Automatic annotation (TrEMBL), chains A, B:
It catalyses: isochorismate + 2-oxoglutarate + H(+) = 5-enolpyruvoyl-6-hydroxy-2-succinyl-cyclohex-3-ene-1-carboxylate + CO2. Belongs to the TPP enzyme family. MenD subfamily. The lineage of its organism: Bacteria, Bacillati, Bacillota, Bacilli, Bacillales. Binds 1 thiamine pyrophosphate per subunit. Its EC number is 2.2.1.9. It holds the Pfam family TPP_enzyme_M_2. This is 2-succinyl-5-enolpyruvyl-6-hydroxy-3-cyclohexene-1-carboxylate synthase. The gene is menD. Residues 220-404 form the Menaquinone biosynthesis protein MenD middle domain. Transmembrane segments: none annotated. Its cofactor is Mg(2+); Mn(2+); thiamine diphosphate. It comes from Bacillus yapensis. Residues 13-124 form the Thiamine pyrophosphate enzyme N-terminal TPP-binding domain.
């Protein structure tokens, strides 16, 4: 059997099937062992090949595309440490439930563990962080092999998407010579089953009527309940949970990543300032719940987590269509493995519309009052992190995406980005909450969602500077706001900040970098913001700009800490006055 | 039991023992969960704490220190994807046999797999690429716990160093609050065994007299043998293998990483141009060996590999003190698991000094002739990759270290860096041959070895640009020569270069980056070399400079390919003329 013919037909069958499953994008990092797959992929008219030299960035870029589109994206790299560079993004994809199809080229068996160059042990390379791993066979040309390759491909795409979505890993051993025969006519014309090898219809978990009745009856016994929504992406969920809230008369505690802080859905019951008012003891007393219904990932707010922990006697129901265990406080009384939207629909129709609730009104009142008092942030004349996010909720255009870095930005969004009807999507890498790969993830998302704004701190920006290469190479449109407090701002909020010896060295870690240089290297426009007027005019001017644009806002870690604490203290005093008055 | 006291005494015992084992350096990436370990480490007077924000760079930096010093270096990071960023360097350390002690902080058991932030599955995070993994216990204060922690620490350091050296991974679950009590008096004063808990004396594999006799007698039967030395670091090996060569009258085929291409040892039998002359059929016929003795990793030269493959009937003996299987061609007839130096000593003394060999003289003659003809490279007037390495072998100062990138630089060193007596150490990451982490590894090495020159291509330089942060932060001294051929030059040497469609996109991958911007961001000096005179003057001027200095040489991939091929063809014709004449 001709080696090149076997190699070509095996790979062409795989790539053809990949496209049949609906995959449109693959991120490729250059390398030698992956040559045949890369060359065949580049030949397919319906596959977009994105080149990304740094595999760490490449994998986060694919993650961003998949996260933004909800569809799996493929990744391809050569053997060796190239594949190990995918690890951070694979881990993030696993925990944030994003579908990825990781394809790694490998040496054939006879070159493994015998000191051959670029040969490492790639079997189960990502451990438990890949949902499915397949060691692919050496390319052969036979009908059975084609059936196998196509079936694996279809399964990989379906497995990556099935709830909980996540990364799958296929490892391909390729022998030299590695060049396929691209002269072959009808490279991607499949001998049989032209519409795809096997269609995989994936059901979602739904509860039986008797389960719904039982849960519905239990719920009816409680007047004082809250709905807590963490990070969740599901079509139709916003309207379904708002309807549930209206039926039950429970407020919706909406985490920024719940996608409920912005949109065309009814915002009446959306609570968006809990991160502030749940720091106040009087509010916590007044708002004590009997039941908590939770959807999505664990919310970001520490104040909310503490509030739930302090109400251990409340029933806590966690609805998870991905059948995980999203309960770090270990307080759940029921785990309900059911598609989230279908749960809302079924319970709403079971309980019917309940009378107006004082408890709900009290949440709304405290929320409205807090929001009003938080407006004090507008008085901040110096450049500051809190006011920035408040401004952004005003200024971001309709339909924009706001991607935020971990550490401080996501927390400031939580505190200062309040409900609006502009359909702004808020994104962050909250599977493992790393500061790595943020630029690349946002750039990947920017190929799907426009306009896209990324707000990151300086350490996060630095960590993935290489990610900017993709913006340059593909003229991607992204507007980045770097909050440069010259180091790790979040550590000032932690107990070690009371131990000044070694604090700056170990935690403050000032980098003293002039990012302007890097922005110029990647052909971006750069603006060092000097005051709020400058920010506003620069922001407005930027609205129309294409390409990479970076605004840098320098802030001070100590001032920022003080400003946050002063504001929370002020608002807290006002809330106590309201509730005691 | 007081939590803080338990946390403090447990960690202090670990850190004290770490220092007792002889470890002097730890590379720390800032994070929250690792707070107690970082704070205690910073308190130890005999431990150098190096901060490195990007964990991928941090791990390669530690790898470079350990590689240069031969002693284990510790790494510390927080939980989550931070630890996953270590993966590429851990893999490289495993395959290149470099001792690392990887310490990762983790959430305690009750926060694992329950959706807690920054909690990922860190058990066996690096799979088979860690030599030893220990899930450490939750800190407790008891004599037994102290004994356990100290024993594990001693074992970790010994395991990392035992042949084959490699990375070990200890995972530490820490509960909040995370701040240790640094007020404690005599934090590191150990109650017992002040000189260290347990001394581990590691033997090396040596052969029994009967084994030596058997091997010695077998060797005596052959006149035509060669010694092939790949990457190897062992005190005293150079002199021992030169003595073996003199006794046996076998030439030494010296890979650049064998550390035999430069030094005070006798260079008479060192063959350093085989990568050129083994492309010639007449030379290969004239130099056919009956026996091949191999030390160290598989050599870099493809011509040499093919030569050995074409001589399958030759006995091939692989001496490996690390008991691996460094034989990708699967041609070994004997695997000899014995310390390399002791093997040389024992065989030399068994065989005694043999009479002068024609076979050895023929190798030396062809080598000398090839070297003379390769001098034609000096005539290259345009900036070129080959001539650069030839120049470097002349110009590098006594005792310098030359760290080279993978892909083309290491191959050009192989072709053009010839024997000299200047004790120049040549380094590269050849465990898994990745282009990742090269700047960081070289910077780590630069803290041990001075002066240090790094020569890399533009893709390799780009891949680890973040690594330059350490140079800025610690004012490290490194002289970098970037060969910028705007893309992946090595692919022009591979078969896919004959398929121009998509070649530039998939393999050429031009980045069009002006690195000057990045160098300025990291406070380096930058020189864009315009011709050879400029290079020479810049090089000489640089000799006295401290800090980060970068010289960029732009070359052309096609010209480079042609120049290499023309030179090899020319030399090959001359060799045929010599041998046939």
């Amino acid at each position: 059997m001709n080696h090149q013919e076997a190699l070509t037909s095996y790979i062409a069958a795989f790539v053809a099937e990949l496209v049949q499953t609906g995959i449109t994008d693959v991120v490729v990092s250059p390398g030698s062992r992956s040559t045949p797959m890369a060359m065949v992929m580049a030949e397919h008219p319906d596959l977009n090949v994105h080149i990304n030299v740094d595999e760490r960035s490449a994998a986060f870029f694919a993650l961003g595309m998949a996260k933004a589109s909800g569809h799996p994206v493929a990744l391809l790299c050569t053997s060796g440490t190239a594949a190990a560079n995918y690890y951070p993004a694979v881990v993030e994809a696993y925990y944030s439930r994003v579908p990825l199809i990781v394809l790694t080229a490998d040496r054939p068996h006879e070159l493994r563990d015998v000191g051959a160059p670029q040969a490492i042990d790639q079997i189960h390379l990502y451990g438990k962080h890949a949902k499915w791993f397949v060691e692919m066979p050496i390319p052969e040309k036979s009908d059975e092999m084609e059936r196998y390759v196509r079936s694996v491909c279809a399964r990989a795409a379906a497995t990556a998407q099935a709830a909980p979505a996540g990364p799958v890993h296929l490892n391909f051993p390729f022998r030299e010579p590695l060049v396929p025969n691209l002269e072959k006519e009808d490279l991607f014309t499949l001998k049989s089953r032209e519409a795809g090898y096997v269609a995989i219809e994936q059901g979602v978990p739904t509860l039986h009527t008797t389960q719904i009745e039982k849960i519905g009856e239990q719920l009816k016994r409680h007047q004082n309940g809250i709905i807590v929504c963490g990070s969740l992406e599901e079509d139709g969920f916003a309207d379904a949970v708002v309807a549930l809230s209206n039926h039950l008369q429970f407020p919706i505690i909406a985490d920024p990543l719940s996608q409920l802080r912005s949109g065309k859905h009814d915002g009446t019951n959306i609570i968006d300032t809990y991160d502030t008012f749940l720091r106040n003891e009087d509010a916590k007393k007044a708002l004590k719940p009997e039941v908590i219904i939770r959807f999505g990932a664990m919310p970001i707010s520490k104040a909310l987590t503490i509030f739930m922990k302090e109400n251990q006697d409340a029933e806590q129901w966690i609805i998870d269509g991905g059948a995980g265990w999203r309960d770090p406080s270990l307080l759940s009384t029921s785990m309900i493995y059911c598609n989230e939207k279908s749960f809302c629909d079924a319970i709403s129709s079971h309980v019917g519309v309940r009378p107006v609730s004082d408890y709900l009104n009290k949440w709304r009142e405290v929320n409205a009052f807090t929001k009003e008092n938080l407006m004090k942030i507008r008085e901040t004349s110096e450049l500051s992190e809190g006011r920035l996010f408040h401004l952004l909720s005003d200024m971001l255009p309709e339909g924009a995406t706001l991607f935020v870095g971990n550490s401080m930005p996501i927390r400031d969004v939580d505190s200062f980005f309040h409900f609006n009807e502009k359909s702004i999507k808020i994104m962050a890498n909250r599977g493992a909450n790393g500061i790595d790969g943020t630029i690349s993830t946002a750039l990947g998302a920017s190929t799907v969602l426009q306009p896209l704004y990324l707000v990151v701190g300086d350490l996060t920006f630095f960590h993935d500077l290489n990610g900017l290469m993709a913006a340059k190479l593909y003229n991607l449109n992204i507007k980045i706001i770097v909050i440069n407090n010259n180091g790790g701002g979040i550590f000032s909020f932690l107990p070690q900040s009371n131990h000044p010896k070694n604090f700056e060295k170990l935690f403050g870690t000032p980098l003293d970098l002039k990012f302007e240089h890097a922005i110029h290297m990647y052909n971006g426009t750069y603006d060092l913001i000097t005051d709020w007027n400058h920010f506003t005019s620069s922001f407005v001017q930027n609205l129309e700009n294409d390409g990479l644009s970076v605004m840098e806002i320098t802030t001070n870690r100590d001032t920022n800490l003080k400003e946050h604490r002063d504001l929370w203290n002020f608002v807290s005093q006002e809330i106590s006055r309201l509730l005691k008055g």
